[in-house]
Each structure stands twice: as C-alpha cells, then as structure tokens.
Fold these 2 entries.
Entry 1:
Amino acid sequence: MSEVPTTPEKQKGEDSLPSAQPVAAEHRPSSGRPSSANAEGGIRKSVATLDPQSQARADMMAELEKKVVEAFEIFDHAANKTVDVREVGTILRSLGCVPTEAEIQEIIVSVEDQESPGSVHLDRFLGHVVNIISEYKMQPASAEELLKAFQTLDLEGTGYITKDMMAVLMKEGSEPFTDEELEEMMGAAVEPGTDNINYELYINQIMGVRNELGSIYEMIPKPKKKKIEYKKLI
C-alpha cells in the first residue's frame, strides 16, 4: 500500500498574518518639500507683490482717491460726507475735469442718494469719479489740440480769429454757451481795442491757469489722442 503524500505543515501563525496594505497618503511621511502646486502659487504671489507696474498702479489709484476725497470735502460743509448735487460740477472742475452739463447730469443720476434726494454721499461719488478719471473721460484738450482746432478755423493763417466767429461757434452745438459764459470768455480772449482773438496768446492763458490750479490727469499716463469738441476749448 502506497503512502499518500502529505503537504508540509504550515508554519505556526502564517495564515493569520494580515496582508500588506498601502499606506494612506495622509499618513505617509512628508519629504519636507512643498508640493509643486504650492510652490508655484507662492512664486506667483511673490511676483505679484513685487511687480513694479502693479505696485505703481496701486499707488497711483490710492493717490487719485485721496485727491477726489480732498476736493469733495471742501464742499462738505456739514462734515457728514455729503454734498449738494449742485456742487458736483464744481467739484469735477476743481479736479481739472471738463464735463459738459449732460455729463454732470449723468453723474448726478448715478450717485445721488436715493434716501436723501438732492445730496450725494462720498462713498458713491468716490468710486464713480475715480473710474471716470482713470478712463481719461472729461479730460481737457491739450495745448497742441487747442492750437490745431483754432488753426482749422483760421483759414488764412493770420494767427487770429474774429470775436464774431468765436461767438457763433460757442453759441452752436448741443450745449451752447450762455450769454454770461460767452461774455466771460470774450473778456479774457479778445485783445483790447480790437475784435480779434490771438489764439496762441489765449491758449497760453488757458494753460497758465491750468498749471496754477493743477490737474488730476497729470497723475496718470497720457491716453491716446482723441477728437475734441469746441465746447472744451476753455
């Protein structure tokens, strides 16, 4: 009778050992180095913080806001961060803006306090006006633009235009000058004893006043050339 082969006896406790399990990611030892995603995020943050152009723009916007607040506070007679809506145009012009009456009305509609009609709160005014100025809206014409406009009217190249021609131009358009505005302008522009306007001298007068008062647009880079309106000649 042949013997039945038997399998070797298993080592004691062999079949009771648990199978090896992968170590969960959260329990694995750290290599001590940041992940590539974290490292990249940190680099970007550092670059953004140190970017000279970004920092320069942030500084410019902060200074722009400061100038607008200072102009607003001059007309905030009650010191409660509000002004009368009738002061909006004056505040804009004090900053060096050249708004039309239609533009002033558009701003008033946008910033007027609905709970207190007839007044404008600084919070609404500040953001709206900063956006307008930073987009170069309501910017006065440069000396070069003014000269070109006058030369277009001076067909004979004499360096002068007549008082009557100027009056006609200022009385036309969608926003004609009032008689008072026209009289004030002519008093500064017309040469004494004549009916002529030496427009180069007049432009120099305008630039002199602007330089004395200052302009908020000097704080920001110059925009591309734009088409000007005769209404903005002064």
Entry 2:
Amino acid sequence: MTKPHCHYNSDGIIVAIDGPAGAGKSTIAKGLALVLNYLYVDSGAMYRAVALYFLDNNIDIENNAEVRLALKNISISFHDDQNNRIVFLNGVDVTELIRKPRIYTILSKISALKEVRDSLVVLQRGFSKNFSLVMEGRDIGTIVFPEANYKFFLIADPSVRARRRYLELKHNGEMNIDEAKILEEIKMRDQKDSTREIAPLKKAIDAIEIDSSKINAEDVMKKMLTHLNPEKQFQGQP
C-alpha cells in the first residue's frame, strides 16, 4: 500500500506511538526515548497547552477567525529538568496546569479543530529536522509522520485506563475524583476521537499493536525494543 505523501524532512529515526487516553503512551514513550537516547515529544501536551490558553482567554472555538488569531499568539516549548519534562506556554511553566481536570472538558473539541491540528502538525514535524525522536499521540503514525520508521499502536482496557488516570490525579493531589466518572469520560473521549472528521484516532495499517492492560511499562518497552533494536538490552526503568 502506498504511504500518504507528507511534507517534512527528517534527518533521524522517527518512532511513532499512538493510542487512546490512558494507554500508557507518555510513560512508555519517555522511557523508550531515554533508552534510545532520542528526543521525546509529547504531542498531547501541545493540545492541552492550547486548550489552557483558549480557556484562560475565553476563545470562542466556534469562531474560526478568533481561533486562528489566538494560535498566532501561542508559543509552546519544552525543557528537560532532571528527567522531568517541563512544558512552557508563552514562557510560563504550565506542566501541572495542563493536567487539571478542566482541560479535559474541552480537549476533544480543541483537538478536532482543523486550524489547531494544522498549526501543531507543523510544529511537531519541525522536531524531526535535526533529531531522532519518539513522539506519542493519536495521529502520529497516520497524519504527522505517516512515513515514520517505526509505528506502534498502544491499547488497554477502558477500566484499566480509568484506574491509571484516577491514580494519577490522586497522586497529583486532586480531591473529589470519581473513578466511575473518569471511566465514562474515557469512553466518551474514545468515541469522539475515533469518529471525528479530522485526523481520527485509528491504527496505522503498518503499526504494531501492543495491549498494555496486563503488562507494565517496562514490559511494553521490552516488546518495542525487540522491533526497534533487537541487540539493545533493556536494563529496567531508565
């Protein structure tokens, strides 16, 4: 099957990891990048940063002109500090803010906007110009890098993903969180992401599917490394 034509130049290896919310993409992509000494890019953090900006500035997402103008005023960058990925929005550290529950109330709508996706895809492809990278998201292997060297599609049972999200929020100090409500939100997000008109969540035809429901992040990375670099010995969590 002919791969989709895309407009980007990559000087390194690209590893694309896609999958639904809570499947473990961020943890696994970050760990894999450390093992391989590749750049790690969390595309989801970019969409959450845009959502935060839109919420804080009362951007009308139904107004295309207003959305386009807002995007011109957004700058997103990353910085690694002692193995922690810091996300900056217009020069301000928003790493914790973009993980707050209110972001998820608008995230699917933000992610479905063509103007937002077009803007962020350009930024995401730019990371590949000088680096080998591991990028995770929902359309990395299908839209952002359809010619990626390696593609993985990570899945997990919705109840497992809800539990992971619940524990993450609890660890971050969130109060009054309901695991059943999180499960319902995850199911709704899955439905919206997989049926949206622009860049829907789907497995690339040449992606390797891995179910993380009953295995931990280290075991998932071991599976990936057998495809990426059979000679690379995984020595535990980097």
